[in-house]
Write a structure and sequence with these properties.
about 400 residues; globular; 5-stranded parallel β-sheet; 2 domains; 14 helices; 4-stranded parallel β-sheet; Rossmann fold; single chain
């Protein structure tokens, strides 16, 4: 009897040790997600507070769904679109606050800076807002995921459609930093490949408020299409001033990165007929509508693709942590890459070896005012661009992680 009692106690002790070892795989028994975004500047409408809200929604939904034994927490900060602020904050989070993943990171310069720090400190980077293709090419890392869109996908949608429909001469108005340059480069390649010509380009400061001299150069080029290789407030300011200076409707504008927040700000009267490429539209189907209405109830605005992609990326990360039983970056990333993404944001999405999450993209055309039947009813979806066509083929990737 005594022997049986001792055996039972020994088994219980062993089980407790095993359970403790399992829970210890989650450092501090807490997974912490950091949201680094633009809270007050050019990109605050398309990312900003909405991205923080999307992250909080993902955490709450994950806890309700998975009932994890570990805690999940969030911190957030404004990187002010400055690489040094972003990298310093990320380092502080990783070293002192136990942050496991830095997320969102709208603007390429901040994303690239944080990716380096995260790689050095063995942390995950999830990017929803940045757009430049070098993130998954020359500067890729094995701990980073580029989730929502990139400049290749944007050009492959908007520039291709506009050129094929007769907009065969282009002049680019380009934000003078990595994202704008990448968008101009990728769009120029698509225009040329589809029989069009690029007549010139001009680069403006980031951010900018006065586009008069740049628009006059675009006007003087005689190009049919003025490609706006910028985003956020830069795009909306350029569109407003093009109308004020009489550049439009004589020449047409192509917003190469436009968000539903831009259309809402400018109004359908100013944006009707414009083509844009997006990774998400709130009114696409029942699933997108259901999630977006939850978001709207809290934010009073419909989500941009960045905000919807932020929710999806954080949810996918947290599910991978639970499945892997650890928050160690390499093991979590392996789990994320091994698991397909099927949610309201993406169907049959997957993360490639270069860190690019591929999913369907959509070519949209902004409705005329009399075509809009209810609030935020802004887009006609003209084409679904399949995932394998939307993004740069893996065979063309310059990422050293890709096996050729």
């Amino acid at each position: 009897m005594q022997t049986k009692k001792l055996t039972t106690l020994a088994c219980a002790a062993a089980f407790a040790m095993l359970s403790g070892a399992a829970s210890a795989q989650i450092s501090g028994n807490t997974v912490k997600v950091g949201v680094l975004t633009d809270m007050s500047g050019t990109y605050s409408d398309l990312a900003g507070a909405g991205a923080v809200l999307a992250t909080q929604m993902a955490i709450e939904d994950f806890i309700a769904e998975a009932k994890p034994e570990f805690k999940v927490e969030m911190v957030s900060a404004d990187h002010q679109n400055k690489a040094d602020i972003a990298s310093n904050k990320a380092r502080e989070w990783f070293e002192r606050e136990g942050v496991d993943a830095a997320t969102e990171l709208v603007t390429t310069s901040t994303a690239l800076a944080v990716m380096k720090v995260a790689k050095e400190m063995n942390r995950v980077t999830l990017m929803s807002g940045p757009g430049s293709t070098p993130i998954t090419n020359e500067q890729c890392t094995d701990l980073a995921v580029h989730y929502t869109y990139d400049t290749y996908a944007l050009a492959n949608g908007t520039a291709k459609a506009v050129t094929q429909q007769g907009g065969d001469t282009w002049f680019f108005l380009t934000a003078d930093y990595a994202f704008g340059q990448a968008l101009e480069r990728d769009s120029s390649a698509v225009v040329t490949a589809n029989g069009g010509k690029v007549l010139g380009s001009v680069r403006h400061p980031f951010p900018a408020s006065d586009f008069s001299s740049f628009l006059l150069q675009a006007q003087a080029s005689g190009a049919k299409i003025i490609g706006l290789a910028n985003a956020g407030a830069d795009t909306t300011n350029a569109i407003k001033q093009a109308a004020e200076f009489g550049v439009t409707p004589k020449q047409s504008l192509a917003g190469l990165l436009m968000f539903i927040s831009d259309v809402h700000s400018l109004g359908l009267q100013s944006t009707q007929g414009m083509y844009l490429t997006t990774g998400f539209y709130w009114d696409l189907n029942d699933e997108t509508r259901a999630w977006s209405k939850r978001f709207f109830d809290k934010h009073k605005r419909m989500p941009t693709m960045v905000q919807a992609g932020q929710y999806s990326s954080v949810m996918h990360y947290l599910r991978a942590v639970k499945a892997a039983g650890t928050d160690e970056a390499g093991k979590v990333m392996a789990q994320m890459k091994a698991t397909p993404i099927n949610d309201f944001f993406a169907k049959n999405g997957r993360i490639r070896d270069d860190g690019r999450m591929i999913h369907d993209m959509y070519l949209a055309q902004v409705k005329k005012p009399d075509e809009s039947k209810y609030p935020w009813d802004y887009y006609h979806i003209r084409q679904t661009i399949p995932a394998d066509e939307a993004f740069l083929p893996l065979a063309q990737s310059k990422c050293p992680l890709v096996k050729k």
